[in-house]
């Protein structure tokens, strides 16, 4: 371990986004290199500009390109190899993707400049017809030969024919060491895709001839399974068992994602899985030593795996490459940082709509709480601005799922960028009229208290329903149910950096331990490169409700039941459970036509959060 003192770090025009905060110096754990090394991103969701209000994650995709290029120089100079992996959900969730028309045109141009050796699709690439078609027509060719789709087919937009989205697998040999690798690219057993794609269950895919042939290849030093699949999951367990059943001795390296957490799974002494967080907060690092190679097996022994979760900032990047502000950036990396700045400017993402008077948190404070984003949403945004003129003064209750909010709000400028990162979805509102208020409360109880009722109903009737809560919370749903009455719930392995970290100035102590990720995984507690102080997280409900009523003399008897259209199937199930006989398909109608939750939030901010 190395305790670094780094007195000055300027947010330079040479790297990172101009408006990004400088990283802070912090105590770091070194990377341990091996014969074969990996860098891994997942669930970037459009955050290729980095986090402009959080120093810990303030590097951009251009900096990541420089990092990969400098790492490759260093590693290859030692006769070792580097591979770069991305496991999907690159789209949806940030203005750099969502705010262009068509969506993703800038993002796709930025993304392509990173050299990626194995890249796969997530579920978000498949929700809409044109998003998956854009993968087929742009991303797959941009990463030709390296995009793998072991279990995804797509109806070709021109011929209609069902074709693989990308090759099922590939075999290649690394440049320096001559390590022979068979690589796959999977998506978990996802069922919420639009009908122009077909996702074959992982458990069926591995019984197919091509997979069986691929794992019977004897000239293989490593099986590499990249996928948008949680590190601990039945899907990866099934792949592991299938390969191990035949190849009892060959090392297997999995890379996964989807849950938005840092995670590491040990299947056996020769098979491990790494998941590398979310939103460009984390660059996952892995190394393997003790692999056989095409040049001989003399050094092959028990493989040794090392993992590290690198905080995405220049302080970490300089440290791990041994370079500095002058020697670190590559020409390509600089060009891409510039391209990101130009794209953000064309999309007007720095346009300021208002100024948040304080931080509002998704799960760092209990709910309800004056500093909870959900309390703000129900008591301010929904209560004050949800109103359809055609419904006059009728009282109403509005229901929104907590997963509709995707990120915290930080004190200070609320920009176009903030709008997209907190509320990237395009959901509007619907309503049914004259619902007894007490039945609405019963519906809320079913949606929130009785997690098991709603999930049982869902499994039986609508297996493809999307979760109501954020992926981070879902990854910890077991802890949450167990800890129902106990607050706070310590989600030790999903902790995030503190936006209050300020750039280090010369009068502050260097190498201070600041709050952030303190990951515990199957290999212990030393995975994070940056040594952080832990942060507590609190449970949030599946759904929140706002009572909107001109009537101050008590609760109304009957209300308009308004809800974000996303939750309609859940509300319909819960209503049935509450003994209501409502056909939501026929009896519901649009509330405030053409207004989405995002519009509502933005209008409220413009009206109430004036900058001084
Ligand atoms: C898909 O279509 C919608 C609606 O027409 C549009 O807003 C969006 O930009 C399109 N997305 C892509 C990736 O082309
Ligand atoms: C997909 O769903 C649309 C309706 O959203 C339907 O018109 C179309 O026929 C379906 N396509 C296939 C291949 O099932
Ligand atoms: C052989 O493996 C050991 C660890 O198992 C490693 O330290 C060493 O660098 C390897 N040698 C070569 C030439 O790869
Ligand atoms: C970087 O951009 C400059 C100016 O557009 C261009 O001439 C150069 O070829 C680019 N370099 C790389 C490595 O992309
Ligand atoms: C106002 O509240 C009173 C008392 O609960 C109730 O009787 C009345 O129906 C409410 N008015 C409306 C318009 O809901
Ligand atoms: C809503 O949008 C549709 C189509 O985009 C348009 O035809 C309609 O007039 C809009 N309605 C309102 C109330 O703005």
From TrEMBL:
GO cellular component terms listed in the entry, alphabetical order: cytosol; extracellular region
Signal peptide residue numbers: 1-15
InterPro entries the UniProt entry points to: 5'-Nucleotdase_C_sf, 5_nucleotidase/apyrase, Calcineurin-like_PHP, Metallo-depent_PP-like, Nucleosidase_C, Pesterase_C1039, YHR202W_N
Keyword Protein biosynthesis: no
GO biological process: nucleotide catabolic process
Superkingdom classification of source: Eukaryota
Annotated Putative 5'-nucleotidase C-terminal domain residues: 359-571
Gene3D superfamilies according to UniProt: 3.60.21.10, 5'-Nucleotidase, C-terminal domain (3.90.780.10)
Keyword hit for Signal: yes
Domain Calcineurin-like phosphoesterase: 37-261
Single GO MF descriptor: hydrolase activity
Key words, A-Z: Signal
Record protein name field: Calcineurin-like phosphoesterase domain-containing protein
Organism: Penicillium canariense
């Amino acid at each position: 371990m190395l305790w670094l003192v780094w007195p000055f770090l300027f947010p330079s025009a040479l790297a990172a986004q101009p408006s990004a905060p400088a990283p802070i110096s912090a105590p770091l754990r070194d990377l341990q290199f091996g014969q074969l090394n990996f860098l891994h991103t997942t669930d970037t969701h459009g955050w290729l500009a980095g986090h402009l209000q959080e120093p810990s994650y303030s590097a951009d995709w251009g900096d990541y390109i420089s990092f990969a290029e400098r790492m490759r120089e260093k590693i290859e100079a030692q006769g070792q190899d580097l591979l770069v992996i991305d496991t999907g959900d690159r789209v949806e969730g940030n203005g750099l993707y969502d705010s262009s028309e068509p969506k993703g045109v800038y993002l796709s141009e930025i993304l392509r400049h990173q050299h990626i050796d194995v890249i796969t699709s997530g579920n978000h690439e498949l929700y809409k017809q044109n998003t998956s078609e854009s993968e087929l027509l742009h991303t797959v060719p941009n990463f030709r030969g390296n995009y793998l789709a072991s279990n995804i087919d797509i109806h070709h937009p021109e011929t209609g024919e069902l074709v693989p989205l990308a090759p099922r697998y590939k075999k290649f040999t690394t440049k320096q060491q001559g390590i022979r690798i068979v690589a796959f690219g999977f998506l978990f057993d996802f069922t919420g895709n639009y009908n122009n794609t077909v996702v074959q269950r992982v458990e069926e895919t591995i019984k197919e001839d091509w997979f069986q042939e691929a794992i019977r290849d004897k000239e293989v030093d490593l099986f590499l399974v990249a996928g948008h699949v949680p590190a601990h999951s039945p899907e990866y367990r099934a792949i592991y068992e299938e390969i191990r059943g035949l190849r009892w001795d060959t090392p297997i390296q999995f890379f996964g994602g989807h849950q938005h957490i840092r995670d590491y799974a040990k299947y056996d002494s020769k098979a491990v899985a790494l998941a590398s967080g979310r939103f460009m907060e984390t660059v996952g690092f892995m190394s393997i030593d003790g692999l056989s190679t095409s040049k001989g097996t003399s050094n092959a022994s028990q493989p040794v795996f090392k993992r590290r979760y690198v905080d995405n900032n220049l302080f970490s990047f300089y440290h791990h490459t041994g370079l500095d502000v002058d020697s670190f950036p590559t020409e390509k990396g600089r060009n891409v940082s510039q391209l990101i700045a130009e794209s953000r400017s064309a999309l007007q993402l720095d346009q300021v709509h208002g100024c948040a008077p304080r931080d509002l948190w998704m799960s760092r404070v209990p709910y309800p709480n004056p500093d909870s984003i959900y309390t703000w949403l129900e008591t301010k945004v929904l209560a004050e601005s949800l109103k359809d003129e055609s419904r006059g003064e009728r009282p109403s209750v509005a229901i929104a799922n907590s997963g509709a909010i995707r990120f915290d709000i930080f004190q200070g400028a609320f920009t176009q960028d903030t709008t997209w990162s907190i509320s990237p979805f395009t959901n509007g509102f619907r309503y049914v009229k004259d619902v007894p208020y007490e039945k609405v409360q019963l519906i809320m109880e079913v949606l929130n208290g009785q997690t098991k009722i709603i999930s049982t109903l869902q499994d039986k009737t609508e297996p493809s329903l999307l979760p109501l809560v954020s992926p981070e919370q879902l990854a910890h749903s077991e802890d949450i149910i167990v800890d129902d009455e106990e607050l706070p719930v310590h989600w030790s392995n999903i902790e995030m950096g503190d936006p209050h970290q300020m750039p280090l100035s010369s009068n502050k102590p260097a190498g201070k331990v600041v709050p952030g990720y303190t990951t515990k995984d199957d290999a212990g507690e030393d995975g994070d490169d940056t040594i952080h102080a832990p942060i507590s997280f609190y449970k949030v409900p599946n759904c929140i409700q706002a009572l909107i009523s001109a009537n101050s003399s008590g609760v109304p008897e009957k209300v308009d039941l308004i809800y974000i259209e996303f939750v309609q199937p859940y509300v319909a199930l819960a209503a049935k459970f509450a003994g209501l006989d409502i056909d939501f398909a026929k009896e519901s109608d649009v509330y405030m036509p053409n207004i989405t939750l995002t519009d509502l939030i933005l209008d409220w901010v413009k009206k109430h959060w004036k900058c001084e």
